[in-house]
Amino acid sequence: MKLTRQKHAKKNMGFYKNNFSFREPFQVLLDGTFCQAALRNKIQIREQLPGYLGGAVQLCTTRCVLKELQLLGKALYGAKLIAQSFQVRNCSHHKDLVSGSACLLSMTEEGNPHHFFIATQDHDLANRVRKKAGVPLLFIIQNTMVLDKPSPKSLAVGQKLQTNQLVPEHQKQSIVQLKEQEGLVKQGGEKRRKRKRAGGPNPLSCLKKKKKKTQEGQEPSAEKKKRRKRKRNRVKAEAVQSMQKNEEE
């Protein structure tokens, strides 16, 4: 069973690496519910998660999550201690703190540019994460951490990326820079027209022209034939006259 879970995790990680450029160290945002479930099921997150994801991991949270755990009091004191041991990522709620789920969801806006994983036991938050493309979801079942399979939204975007129908923004910028280096794009953004190079002569024009027989070229040959015929007739006539003259004598 453990090998099967690791096989599925490796397959899902390969999807996010190939389609959304996830790289080590993997940044995992955890909320209070995940920390509480790990404590209850005696899961050592820091030791077990890197082996499950197959790479180095950075465990992190936000000020909103820590504040929420503090307000919940003694019931989640252990979860608060676990969360406090993680790195704190800056969120946009400096003055007015929000709930932990709302804060984590805001950290993955605009296409999840920082490649965060979301680790939570909150079903509502998990369902909202699944509606986003390129946001891996972690949760705990009994005493095991599980990486959720890619959502339909992520699969659709991944398919478009594979068929080159959608190019990531950073790749578009790289393509533009390469074109500028090659001189294919001017500063104004207009494409530079390629000048046509002078080509060689048309090979068809180099062929030798066939000589045409004209009527003028045929006339001398016909005239010769007529002359030969007249000469033969004259010779025959002279021969006949000579024979008649001999007979008379």
CATH architecture designation of one domain = 3-Layer(aba) Sandwich
Strand content: 5-15%
So what's the CATH class of one domain?
Answer: Alpha Beta
- The count of strands amounts to 6
Radius of gyration: 46 Å
Coarse shape: rod-shaped
CATH superfamily of one domain: 5'-nuclease
CATH fold-level assignment of one domain: Rossmann fold
Order of helices and strands: HEHHEHHEHEHEEHHH
Sequence-ordered SSE layout with sheet pairings:
Layout: H1 2-20, E1 26-30, H2 32-40, H3 45-53, E2 57-62, H4 63-71, H5 77-84, E3 87-89, H6 100-106, E4 116-119, H7 123-130, E5 137-141, E6 144-147, H8 152-162, H9 169-181, H10 215-248
Parallel strand pairs: 1-2, 1-4, 2-3, 4-5
Antiparallel strand pairs: 5-6
Describe the structure.
The structure is a single chain. The radius of gyration is 46 Å and the shape is rod-shaped. The chain has a domain at about 1-155: Rossmann fold (3-Layer(aba) Sandwich), CATH 3.40.50. The termini are far apart. It has a 6-stranded mixed beta sheet, sandwiched between helices. With about 250 residues, the chain is α/β, with parallel strands linked by helices. The protein has 10 helices and 6 strands; from the N terminus they run αβααβααβαβαββααα. It is found in: Nucleus, Nucleolus. Involved in rRNA-processing and ribosome biogenesis. Belongs to the UTP23/FCF1 family. UTP23 subfamily. Keywords: Nucleus, Ribosome biogenesis, rRNA processing.
